[in-house]
Amino acid sequence: MRRDGFSTFFLVILGLVGFGLIVWLNAHPDQSPSIIVIPTVQQPTEDANSWQTVLRVGFGSNSTPLPTVAIPTASFVPPTLANSSDTNLTPIAPLQLTVVAPAQPNSVVTATPAPTLSTQSTGLPVTAEVVTRPPAQWQPPALIPPISRDPFGRDHYVFARPVDSNANNEALLSYTFGTNGPDAETPWRIHTGIDMPNPIGQTVRAAGTGTVIWAGPGFQDSPSYGNVVEIQHDFGYKGQVLYTLYAHLSAVLVTQGQRINLGDPLGLVGNTGRVSGPHVHFEVRVGENRYRATYNPLLWMVPYVGRGVIAGRVVGPNGIGLQDQNVTVLDNRTGLVVQSTTSYVYLDNGSDVNSDPSWKENFVFGDIPVGRYQVITNIDGQRVVQKVDVSEGMTTFTELAPHQSSATETPTDSP
Ligand SMILES: [Zn+2]
After folding, report:
1. DSSP 6-30
2. Average pLDDT in the 215-229 region?
């Protein structure tokens, strides 16, 4: 056919010309060697493994919807420590404390049963432990929520600290969440939150955006909480509503129904209710606004820069969680004790706390500097040790279980 014949002829001519060109080029090599210039400035490329990308993916599957605070796209740059050497700090004027009258109950607040109060408690243990950080010891603020570097998206650090970064915003270690105090002989009420001891008048701030659903005394018919602000947040977790609660306030600065942004002042630290010293009691409630629905806030607040969280579970030979077990964290390098706590206590009397939906833990250590640690407990006379590497901005999980063999310590690798 004429058309095919023409095409074949054309291709043959093209091939001959090409072959001739190659022969000619090889016979006349370029005198100057060709130099491949690599551009010094390369176009930025999306790194599929960057932790911001991982985060977006992780939180996207857990949040309902995402918190309104945007995840920073740029790398975190620690602020300069300009305040560290500043000795000319202006003294804070004495605060005029005013207790705002409680807002009238309205339809926003759901009726809840009065919490079951244990009669074992003799009060809170804060008097001797008002640990406030001097202004000179300023440190970088917590990363902006939500954030987690856990590649599996198990973390849900959706809340900020409820007090300023130069206040004491670390949890009191002698009465951690889920514990009944340091003295087994005279146990306190199971702790449904964490305590941040601070002087009266320290500003208490919203841990996230939302709506004030309680502002004043008489919270859920419990005098123990003193003046309370409670926020129902605009975002949830896996379809469940989130609440945060701030108790023992000396002054309440918001009213019921008020819209609140992350960091807005809610009130001032005080010692109203059942306390033995001024502090803010901070609770996270998930799913329901009731006493029985509290979870460990250390697993919901963004860790400080350079720090992470250890969550763990002490179990018996049958794999069942053990209560009230002493657990200690040692710095693997120095051998010094970093923190100690006890595993959660469950009394099945209506005042119990909950293990986290992600971790199923029964103890947590918050604000642990990045590094390698030994987590130690004693189960029926057997010393159990696990080595744990703490990474910044994420939770590391460990399980402490007795050995079946006669070994007295878990085999551990060298540091
Ligand atoms: Zn408390």
Report:
1. HHHHHHHHHHHHHHHHHHHHHHS--
2. 94
- For residue 95 the two structure tokens come to 């605060």
**What are φ and ψ of residue 270, in 5° steps?**
-150, -165
Residue in 300, 118, 103 with CA at minimum distance from that of residue 194: 300
Q: Is 9 helix (H, G, I), strand (E, B) or coil?
A: helix
For residue 146, whether the previous peptide bond is cis, meaning omega lies within 30 degrees of 0, is yes
Only one residue has tokens 């250890």, namely 310
Phi-psi region of 313 (alpha: psi -120 to 50; beta: other; left: phi over 0): beta
150 — pLDDT class (breaks 50, 70, 90): confident
What residues pack around ion ligand 1 (CB closer than 5 A)?
193, 195, 281
Strand-pairing partners, residue 385, are 376
Give the N- to C-terminal CA distance of the chain in Å, as an integer: 80
Token pair belonging to 334: 């120095």
Average pLDDT value for the chain: 75
Q: What is the pLDDT of residues 234-251, one digit of tens each?
A: 999 999 999 999 999 999
Q: Which residue has the tokens 């986290």?
A: 356
Distance in Å, CA 241 to ligand 1 centroid: 22
Instruction: Kindly give the distance from the C-alpha atom of residue 226 to the centroid of ligand 1, in angstroms, as a whole number.
Output: 11
Identify which of 95, 88, 76 has the alpha carbon closest to the alpha carbon of residue 142. Answer: 76
What are the distances in angstroms from CA 27 to CA 13, 16, 31? 21, 16, 12
42 C-alpha to ligand 1 centroid (Å): 53
How large is the average pLDDT for residues 203-208?
95
Q: Is the pLDDT of residue 194 over 60?
A: yes
Q: Where does residue 406 rank: exposed (0-12), middle (13-18), buried (19+ CB within 10 A)?
A: exposed
Q: Sort residue 128 into left (φ over 0), alpha (ψ -120 to 50) or beta.
A: alpha
CA of 21 relative to ligand 1 center, distance in Å: 85
Q: Are 68 and 209 within 8 A, CB to CB?
A: yes
What is the 411 CA–ligand 1 centroid distance (Å)? Answer: 38
- Residue 101 or 322, more confident: 322
Distance (Å) from CA 96 to ligand 1 centroid: 25
Domains, the chain: 51-68+99-299 (2.70.70.10), 307-400 (2.60.40.10)
Ligand 1 geometric centre to CA of 372 (Å): 30
Check if the beta carbon of residue 351 is closer than 8 Å to that of residue 190.
yes
Please list, in sequence order, all residues whose beta carbon lies within 8 angstroms of the beta carbon of residue 328, skipping any fewer than 6 positions away.
Answer: 337, 339, 340, 375, 376, 377
Is 128 in a helix, a strand, or coil?
helix
